[in-house]
């Protein structure tokens, strides 16, 4: 670039920087920022997505909707919102995290204010536990400093090293601020397969009694789930102070999915791709899935996790 052109470019950049600094609202018109234009709960959209995309999870829908709406309507929450989602793979834990992100942040999961951690990817080596704790604290502190309404999603909690998650306990407590940083408007979501077996036992018990699945309530699962996760050595929550100190606001159970729910997942996948809901394809994909227990064959052992891959075969 020639000196004159370079000078003009630098001048324009400097002028824009000065303009955006002077008028931050103008900056938010062009770039994501931590303001209502980019970070705001779309309650109507959240309800619609939960109804149209999440199947067989009446408890999770009710709890998450109530928890998130209550959190956002409170102008001065006493602590961050902490949700712990539990259930077998493919039951909708990642999906509901995605739905939440998309209805709070304009850029959804791609938002600069949504941070995802996968235990086997980000914390693979137990011998580096101290290092992970320090880095995790710095990461959370820095990102909440940049945006108080940040969201942190921790996936594969059942594979995380016991004790690591205790590093963030101070940020989930009832503190006005910690070293000048306010964490009370942040959201923490923990995803885990831990507790899936206990949830299935309770769901199966209802089925054997002839009770409807929809009759299962949070109170039937809540205490059993939190105690089971706390005492499960294969859980990242094993003997963690996050449970011991009651800083998890809701333990959200995800029920195992039945044949009819798998069919709904297949239908949604077809429609999302722009295809008609072909009943033959829907039935064929659902029939390919394997179900348990061995005798009753009620629940899909992978939930809806492999539906997208199986649909590929028929298109």
User: Beta fraction of the residues?
Assistant: 5-15%
Rg, rounded, reads 22 Å
Enumerate how many helices there are, as a single number: 14
Q: Shape, please?
A: globular
pLDDT under 50 segments (min length 5)?
none
Number of strands: 7
State the order of secondary-structure elements, H for helix, E for strand: HHHHEHEHHEHEHHHEHHEEH
The percentage helix is 40-55%
Let me know the largest β-sheet. Answer: 5 strands, parallel
SS-based structural class?
Answer: alpha/beta
The separation of the N and C termini measures 51 Å
Give the strand order, joined by hyphens, for the main sheet: 2-3-4-1-5
Q: Can you give the mean pLDDT?
A: 89
Overview of the structural elements:
- The protein is of the alpha/beta class and 315 residues long.
- Helix content is 47%, strand content 10%.
- Helix 1 (3-22) crosses helix 2 and helix 13 (279-288) crosses helix 14 (307-314).
- The chain starts with a helix and ends with a helix.
Helix and strand arrangement:
Layout: H1 3-22, H2 24-30, H3 43-53, H4 58-73, E1 81-86, H5 93-102, E2 114-118, H6 119-122, H7 129-146, E3 151-155, H8 169-172, E4 187-192, H9 196-208, H10 222-230, H11 241-244, E5 250-253, H12 259-272, H13 279-288, E6 291-292, E7 299-300, H14 307-314
Parallel strand pairs: 1-4, 1-5, 2-3, 3-4
Antiparallel strand pairs: 6-7
Summarize the structure.
This protein is of the alpha/beta class and 315 residues long. 47% of the residues lie in helices and 10% in strands.
Task: Quickly list its features.
single chain; 315 residues; alpha/beta; five-stranded parallel beta sheet; 14 helices; 10% strand
